[in-house]
Design a protein that fits this description.
This protein has 386 residues and is mostly helical. The protein has 2 domains: 19-45 and 82-95 and 280-385, no CATH class; 139-266, no CATH class. Helices cover 53% and strands 4% of the residues. The protein contains 16 helices and 4 strands. The protein has helices at residues 2-8, 10-39, 55-66, 71-80, 97-107, 116-130, 139-155, 168-186, 196-217, 221-229, 236-240, 247-266, 274-278, 281-293, 332-335, 359-362; strands spanning 300-303, 308-310, 320-322, 327-330. Helix 1 packs across helix 2 (10-39). The chain is elongated. The structure holds protoporphyrin IX containing FE. Protoporphyrin IX containing FE (HEM) binds next to helix 6. Protoporphyrin IX containing FE binds next to helix 6.
Length: 386
Amino acid sequence: MFTFLSSLGPLNALALVFGSLTVFYAGRKVLIDNKIRKNGGVRAPILATNPLFGIHFFIRLTYLAFNNRLSDYQDYVYTWATLDSRDLVEISYLQGPEFHKAWSPFLGDSIFTTDGKQWSESRTLIRSMLINDRTIEIMDLFYRMALDITTEFLLGTSVNSPANPGQEFVQAFHEVQKYKILFTALAPWDMVVPSHRYRKGIRTLERFIEPFIACTLALAPEDLEKLSKSDKESTFLHNIARFPRDAKVIRDQILAVLIADVLATCGRRAAPMYEDLKRLSYLTHTLNETLRLHPAVPYNVRAALQDTTLPSMSPGKPPIAVLKGDAVFCSPLEMQRRRDLYPEPTDKFADPAIFSLDRREHWTPKAWHYLPFNGGPRICIGQSLL
Ligand code: HEM
């Protein structure tokens, strides 16, 4: 083929390639127009008749995606199409062969890339693993997170306990607390419990904080004063060491704040249940509003199982034709920001572009107007976990 083209000379070769492409696209247009005539409906707005003429869309899309501004893309597309193309309705749930081809090197023949029996089997399998009463113990993680934040705040150095759960300090802190609770519960019989592990634990904690205290006390008062005023380097230790300059007083204050902070965060003894999480309305509002403005799946695509039409959004306008295998893109990101799907902003109901935690107090989305987990047969099966 290449030899044949080069034998024609550059101008003739170019004319032949250009001519063939023109015939190909013109022929394809006639075929599609014919199918649409039989199917009913009108063509969706055409952005470009071939990939070359549409190259600016791809460049723009890549640029916006890399700059985290995907939502601007839709507006860019609409300036080239007509407003009618904002139609979004429920369509069949076939991922389609094109989708499989594009994603299978990464996701293989999994639930995301397959259709029919294969998809249905994957869904049943994964679902069965998600629907159970397994509780996940997160108390320990909260505990260690609180310990980390508090040691960072107090001493300027975190014990980094999630990464080092077996660390001496973390174990000692846990042990001391455990014994303290036991002693309190058993009083006045606490003296019958051997307390050497309790005292050993306290020594371990002291060994950890003492170098920090010594280092701080070794600073000249004017340096300490300067440090305690610094936005970045100042710690609780720097501030407290300005006054007593006594290692024992400082040690006592630090351990007191350490225990108070950690207990305040993890003080609850009963394990939280799933129902408790659902009652956390502030958390629910935060998740809802975050997924409204920033859905984790901002764009989605479906392929038509058969020739069909999508109703036009404008009353009286003809429907848009969708032929078998056509890919239909839809965007929860764009849709969930559409002003016309919301009531007028008021004192109580913020503009839809704004992140507003009390939005759901005054508004409930209509079916299919809020789709961060998609809907229909391929709705996210992890939704109930959140
Ligand atoms: C905020 C968290 C999540 C969001 C926003 C989310 C969103 C979505 C969306 C939009 C889809 C539909 C994709 C499509 O239409 O092709 C989906 C499907 C799916 N999600 Fe999630 N998801 C979340 C968390 C989870 C979790 C925690 C799990 C599993 C434990 C999970 C498992 C799945 C599976 C297996 C599917 C495929 C369903 C199918 O094609 O039949 N998701 N998710």
